[in-house]
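tool=predict chain=A
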Amino acid sequence: MKSVSIGGLIFASLALAACSSEPSVVAAVEPTGTASNAFLTGPCDAPPPDGAIKPVHGIVERMKGNRKAWAEHHGYDLLVNPGDEQWAIGSFGYGTAPMMHEPNHGLQVDVFVLRDCGDTWTHLGSGTTSTDETAQKHREINGVKDEAGKFFFKIPRSQQLGVGRHRVRLVAPTDNTATELFIYVLEPGTRLAVTDIDGTLTSSENAAGLDVASAHNWAPDAHEDAATVMQILAKNGYVMMYTTARPEWMMSRTRWWLNEQQFPPGLVNLSRSALGAIGPFAKKHKVEIFKEVAAKGITPSFGFGNRKSDLEAYQFARIPSKGLFFFDFEDSLKKTGILADLSAAGRNIKSYTDIVAVIERSAAE
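tool=predict ok
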């Protein structure tokens, strides 16, 4: 049985493998295209396929033998170019309580897709989760390693998804528990804006830990007008990407919070660890994401953060300084001696309300 303590959320990530040597900066790609506003901000809320139970923040009660169990399933959002291989990837596990679960070996999973966030679900096929014996069959894809309980489904060429945003649902028919992910098929040069979550969008840097400690009975507020700023970007053709070093099993809860706070839809990237990541490990996680983004011919134009790891990851991604905004960060930077003047790397802000007009002008350019 895999057990993770609340304290482990904050401290155990220090036991992760040491960071690799400093990566070189990626080459910038000038954004050239715009995306349809409907593609970015339109609804994607068609009822789930018949028989599938909608997940509650990734933790769903079910009967397992004669006892209750918790299902901790999560999917991994994917960004690809047209013509790339397309994969639906998830992780399936059960246990006696949240954060105390073991991977489910050889579980049958059905794959459904809501193409272009339309009205009709299509069944793409089925597969099984990896076992101890079959793990390592798949190469690492989208930062996800093939381990027991992981699910990899390659979408057949004849059924590949076109340019747009697509909702994918992975259903375990044995008990109708499910999880979801989104696949974004984007052209090189697509406009992209990225943002951290904890402390940058949430009212507390420790929002994830407090949320878990309360058994999901507490959720942080968002900074005033943070959602307004992100909505402006989305309405001007920017695909949103939310990057955070939270534990990977918090995916459903994170997506729920973003929706509740009226942030625009977008790619959501959590750490590839059950423990999360902090400090240099958080930077490494985000740098790996931006390597993948750069490989797709896309350079973010805007970045929002509140920590040194955000600043360094955004500099690696070659986001122009005029598009960088750091929430209540200047004092922290000066204390560490990283920068004497934040204006050289971006703009320190105390309120999103203060930059609404700035973002409106910049996004319209």
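The longest helix spans residues 280-295. Confidence is low (pLDDT under 50) at residues 1-23, 56-61.
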